[in-house]
Write a structure and sequence with these properties.
- By secondary structure, this protein is mainly alpha-helical.
- It has one domain.
- The protein has nine helices and no strands.
- The longest helix has 34 residues.
- The two termini are 26 Å apart.
Length: 234
C-alpha cells in the first residue's frame, strides 16, 4: 500500500513539474512579481535619512515579498487544475486524498524555493550592499527559508483548495491565508533578522524564531493533513 501511494505521489509531482517546465508560467509570474517587489521597496526607501539602517527592516520586507508571491503561485497552481479538469479527475481516481495534498505541497514548495533562490541575491544587492554582515550567520538564512516555505506551501495548498471553487478566489485566499500565516511570518522575520544582524546575542533570537517556525510547520501540516480529505470532499 505504501509503495502504491509513493508511486501515485511521484506521478502527480512529476506531472506538476513537467507542466510547469513546459510553460514556465507560474515561475515567470512569481519570479517577476518578487523581483519587482524588491525594486519597489528599494525605490520607496531610497530617500531615507542618513541614520537609516536597512538591516532593521530587511527581514520583514523579504518575507512580505515571499508571502504575497506565494499567494500568486498557490492560486495559479489550483486554478490550472480546476480549469483543465485535472482536479476532478484526481478526486474520481483511486488515489488517497493525503497523497494528492502532499504532492501539491511538494510541487508548490519546489517552485517557491526556486523563486526565493532567485530573489535573495537581488535582495542582498539592493538592501545589504555596503553593510557589515557576518557571512557565518548569513549562511543560516537558507535554513529559515526552507522551514518557512514548508509552512507556506502546506497551509497555502489547503486554503487554495478551499478557495478555488469560490467566485472571488483571490480575495478569499488572501483573507484566509494572511491571518493563519501570521505566526509563521513572525518567527521567520525574527530568525532572518537575527541572521542578518549577526551578533552573538542575535543567535539566541535566531533559534527562538526557528523553534517558532518549526513548531508552526508541525502543527499546521498535521492539521492540514487531517482536514484535506474533508475539504476536497465538501
Amino acid at each position: 500500500m505504501a509503495s502504491a501511494s509513493m508511486r501515485q505521489f511521484k506521478a502527480m509531482l512529476r506531472k506538476d513539474v513537467v507542466m510547469e517546465l513546459r510553460t514556465k508560467e507560474m515561475l515567470m509570474s512569481m519570479g517577476l512579481y518578487s523581483l519587482l517587489t524588491m525594486v519597489v521597496y528599494f525605490v520607496a526607501l531610497s530617500q531615507a535619512g542618513a541614520g537609516f539602517d536597512p538591516r532593521d527592516i530587511a527581514a520583514g520586507l523579504l518575507w512580505l515579498a515571499f508571502i504575497f508571491t506565494s499567494m500568486l503561485g498557490l492560486n495559479r497552481s489550483l486554478v490550472h487544475e480546476k480549469d483543465q479538469g485535472c482536479l476532478e479527475a484526481l478526486l474520481l481516481s483511486p488515489v488517497d486524498r493525503p497523497v494528492i495534498y502532499f504532492a501539491k505541497v511538494t510541487g508548490n514548495l519546489l517552485f517557491l524555493l526556486i523563486v526565493e533562490a532567485l530573489t535573495i541575491p537581488v535582495f542582498a544587492f539592493l538592501f545589504l550592499q555596503g553593510e557589515t554582515i557576518d557571512l557565518r550567520t548569513m549562511a543560516l538564512i537558507p535554513l529559515v527559508l526552507v522551514a518557512g516555505s514548508i509552512g507556506i506551501a502546506g497551509v497555502g495548498t489547503l486554503l487554495a483548495t478551499m478557495s478555488v471553487n469560490t467566485s472571488g478566489k483571490d480575495f478569499v485566499l488572501a483573507m484566509l491565508f494572511i491571518p493563519l500565516i501570521y505566526p509563521l511570518l513572525l518567527g521567520a522575520v525574527m530568525a532572518t533578522g537575527a541572521a542578518i544582524v549577526g551578533t552573538p546575542e542575535a543567535l539566541g533570537v535566531f533559534w527562538t524564531g526557528m523553534a517558532w517556525v518549526i513548531g508552526y510547520d508541525v502543527i499546521m501540516l498535521l492539521a492540514s493533513y487531517g482536514l484535506y480529505e474533508f475539504i476536497v470532499g465538501a
